[in-house]
């Protein structure tokens, strides 16, 4: 019997990733959808902008959770995809190409190409070496953006227009932009959920535990990881497109290694491997940043130790903490 013929029955035995809690996800998206209503009833108006930004980063965190939480690949250069998406958007808008239906294919193609090339090299390594190579590729893109003097260089690129969709301007209205981002976040969540629940996702998760065992059943682990890496990068590039439209500014800082570290912490904060946890982690991270920066200009001195303490004393992130609290109530 060939390896290929044994692949199907063995794949059925591959353990699925941690089960998602659809009720929590539904409640989370429902609360997000009601935020503009709450703002109209008296909630601080800046929350709309803050949550919009948090949802954009949640898209990037979701994309990272696909390879980190499911595949066990710690990428320290994931912000490069966000920066590529933002710069492709900014440059095309600057050159007079504002139509999103033209910009998005370019963003996705560039991120896919970058993911294919860097992933092919990076995925030949493991552990700390993989982390360092992804960091190196991320820094290469960062310094390339700094060298683009025609598009602002180190000072960044200011955009005087936003993208349009078939001639309409949904990004100019704050509420309209909020619901566009929410729709994209929901679509990305649904897509990644389908991927994780598929045989492809189960094999990716199983390879995290024992790549050799998966390989002998007939699956090409390297190819599966590369495809996941490319998909992850394309989704992160989509968040870069939205970020450029929200801030109307593009900077090399979008793809710096500290930004990649923040994305990793968002995933860890919410709960590694929990898709709605990545969204919760991004929201919590941005809200904590906003609150602490309002207290003092040296807020990072407070935020850093908070991150360390959280990682040391919690397991499973905020989602794991909520599960423990829920289990405690039933005891």
Structure, described:
It is a single chain. The chain is mainly alpha-helical. The protein has one domain. Helix content is 74%, strand content 1%. The protein contains 15 helices and two strands. The chain has helices at 3-13, 22-33, 35-40, 46-70, 79-94, 100-122, 127-146, 174-197, 199-209, 211-216, 221-247, 257-270, 275-295, 299-313, 317-330; strands at 157-158, 249-250. The chain has a two-stranded antiparallel sheet with strand order 1-2. The termini are far apart. The model is unreliable at 1-20 (pLDDT under 50).
End-to-end Cα distance: 51 Å
Strand order in space, largest sheet: 1-2
Helix content: over 70%
**Secondary-structure-derived class:** mainly alpha
Count of extended strands: 2
A few lines on this structure:
This protein has helices at residues 3-13, 22-33, 35-40, 46-70, 79-94, 100-122, 127-146, 174-197, 199-209, 211-216, 221-247, 257-270, 275-295, 299-313, 317-330, and strands at 157-158, 249-250. It is mainly α. It has one domain (18-256).
Task: Give the topology, please.
Elements: H1 3-13, H2 22-33, H3 35-40, H4 46-70, H5 79-94, H6 100-122, H7 127-146, E1 157-158, H8 174-197, H9 199-209, H10 211-216, H11 221-247, E2 249-250, H12 257-270, H13 275-295, H14 299-313, H15 317-330
Antiparallel strand pairs: 1-2
Helix pairs in contact: 4-8, 4-11, 4-12, 4-13, 5-6, 5-7, 5-11, 6-7, 6-11, 8-9, 9-11, 12-13, 12-15, 13-14
């Amino acid at each position: 019997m060939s390896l290929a013929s044994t692949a199907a029955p063995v794949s059925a035995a591959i353990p699925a990733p941690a089960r998602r809690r659809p009720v929590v996800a539904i409640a989370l998206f429902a609360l997000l959808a009601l935020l503009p209503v709450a703002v109209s009833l008296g909630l601080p108006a800046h929350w709309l902008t803050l949550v919009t930004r948090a949802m954009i980063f949640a898209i990037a965190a979701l994309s990272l959770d696909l390879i980190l939480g499911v595949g066990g690949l710690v990428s320290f250069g994931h912000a490069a995809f966000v920066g590529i998406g933002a710069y492709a958007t900014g440059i095309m808008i600057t050159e007079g190409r504002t139509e999103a239906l033209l910009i998005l294919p370019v963003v996705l193609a560039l991120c896919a190409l970058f993911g294919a090339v860097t992933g092919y090299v990076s995925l030949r390594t493991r552990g700390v070496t993989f982390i360092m190579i992804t960091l190196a590729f991320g820094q290469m893109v960062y310094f390339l953006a700094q060298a683009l003097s025609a598009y602002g260089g180190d000072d960044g690129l200011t955009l005087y227009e936003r993208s349009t969709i078939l001639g309409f301007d949904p990004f100019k209205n704050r509420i309209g932009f909020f619901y566009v981002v929410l729709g994209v976040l929901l679509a990305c969540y649904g897509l990644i959920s389908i991927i994780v629940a598929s045989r492809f996702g189960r094999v990716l998760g199983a390879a995290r535990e024992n790549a050799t065992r998966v390989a002998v059943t007939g699956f090409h682990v390297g190819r599966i990881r590369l495809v996941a890496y490319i998909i992850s990068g394309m989704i992160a590039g989509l968040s870069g497109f939205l970020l450029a439209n929200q801030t109307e500014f593009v900077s090399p800082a979008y793809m710096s290694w500290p930004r990649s570290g923040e994305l990793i912490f968002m995933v860890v904060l919410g709960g590694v491997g929990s898709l709605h946890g990545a969204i919760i982690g991004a929201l919590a991270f941005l809200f904590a940043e906003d609150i602490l920066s309002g207290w003092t200009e040296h807020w990072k001195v407070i935020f850093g130790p908070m991150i360390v303490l959280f990682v040391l004393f919690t397991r499973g992130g905020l989602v794991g903490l909520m599960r423990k609290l829920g289990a405690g109530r039933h005891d």
